[in-house]
Amino acid sequence: MLTCKEFDDFMVDYLDEDLPVWQKFMCWLHVKMCRECAHFVQKYQRSIALGKAAYDTPDGPVPDSVPEELIKAALAHREKD
User: Fold this and answer.
1) 20 to 30 Å CA-CA from 57: which of 1, 30, 39, 75?
2) What is the number of structural domains in the chain?
3) Each residue of 11-47: pLDDT tens digit?
């Protein structure tokens, strides 16, 4: 069985389904048996989904929950580039 470190090395390729069948199976097995890695995968996938959702409408309105200071800092950084 893979160690958590080995799984971490393969995780992105595993989630992208870019591994040989035997490595994909070993990663799947590790996630099924390791609660910590399963939790990590869930959080990683959620982060990716949130990141993609943030760019669904890049010119859309900024949610009211975003602090004004953060908006100003992001705009200032964008102007520098």
Assistant:
1) 39
2) 1
3) 999 999 999 999 999 999 999 999 999 999 999 999 9
